[in-house]
Write a structure and sequence with these properties.
This protein has 294 residues and is mainly α. It has a single domain, classed as MetI-like (MetI-like fold), CATH 1.10.3720. It contains eleven helices and no strands. Belongs to the binding-protein-dependent transport system permease family. CysTW subfamily.
């Protein structure tokens, strides 16, 4: 067998495998969307769920998912940004940085259920936060830190070294060069990573079952006290998210129209994650074009 024929066979095998993977994923997505889209309506997206009656919605769970995502990113992004800047711009090659990178790798490989059990033992029980938004956000911070830190580090390292030399040549200090030159140049990559990690957090369930709780109490939208358990922005209230709600429906079986609600909620979750992913690509490309044309 000559080299050209072997190359064509290998290329064909790779294209076939890639096509099968795409076909499987596309079939799965279409199956979920075809089953769920007919059940989605404005009432379904805004009404609260009902445990033993038909006609419930996912309004509170959807709000909880977005609010928990917001709190998690507020906590995790500054830490990840600082860690990424240190590793990319200041860290020297020694055992400390090797230990940090090893810890990041270990954290990124932990199953989410392990992170959830850790959050349950530490934040729910030891710190006494109970099943709450805060416990869930802190647990998801440990889940999110490795991905975000590595993304920030790689985005900063992708900036050409001439950008650093130009900043230093203009009389800027090292920190000013990082803050005013390197970070703005790396913004498209960082923002893409933030949006992608947001989609990952939005669809997380296992870690939140043990930390944020499995109930969605009614919210008082006239009360905006972050320490109130009835406030929409209350940090210490239980907050069943959309992914946890889907898991709960399919395990408890107490909802008469559970299959319809589960299908609709799954479709909403898939659409939200797809929006996060496509938005990350679109925003990253647009920012990159603006920076290169400026």
């Amino acid at each position: 067998m000559n080299a050209k024929r072997a190359d064509k066979i290998a290329t064909g095998v790779l294209y076939t495998v890639a096509g099968l993977i795409v076909l499987i994923l596309a079939s799965l997505l279409l199956y979920i969307l075809v089953r769920g889209l007919p059940h989605i309506s404005w009432e379904f997206l805004t009404q609260p769920s009902k445990g033993y009656e038909t006609g419930g919605g996912i309004g509170i769970q959807l709000f909880n998912s977005f609010y928990l995502l917001f709190v998690t990113m507020v906590i995790s992004f500054p830490i990840s940004l600082g860690a990424g800047i240190y590793l990319a711009e200041y860290a020297k090659k020694n055992w400390i940085t090797d230990l940090i990178r090893t810890a990041i790798e270990i954290l990124s490989s932990l199953p989410s259920v392990v992170v959830g059990l850790f959050g349950f033992l530490v934040f729910v029980i030891q710190f006494g936060y109970g099943f709450s938004i805060l416990s869930g956000a802190l647990a998801l911070t440990f889940f999110n830190l490795p991905l975000l830190t590595r993304n920030v580090e790689e985005s900063l390292k992708a900036v050409h070294f001439t950008q650093r030399e130009a900043g230093l040549a203009l009389g800027l200090s090292r920190w000013e060069t990082v803050l005013r030159v390197i970070v703005p140049e790396a913004t498209p990559g960082i923002l893409t990573g933030v949006i992608l990690s947001s989609g990952r957090i939005f669809g997380e369930a296992a870690a939140l079952i043990y930390t944020a709780g499995q109930s969605a109490p009614a919210l008082d939208f006239t009360n905006w006290n972050p320490f109130s358990v009835s406030s929409p922005i209350g940090l210490f209230r239980q907050a069943e998210t959309l992914a946890v709600h889907i898991w709960k429906i399919n395990t408890e079986g107490t909802m008469p129209d559970g299959s319809a609600v589960s299908a609709g909620a799954s479709a909403v979750l898939i659409i939200a994650v797809l929006v996060f992913n496509f938005s990350a690509r679109a925003i990253g490309k647009r920012l990159h074009k603006k920076l290169t044309s400026a």
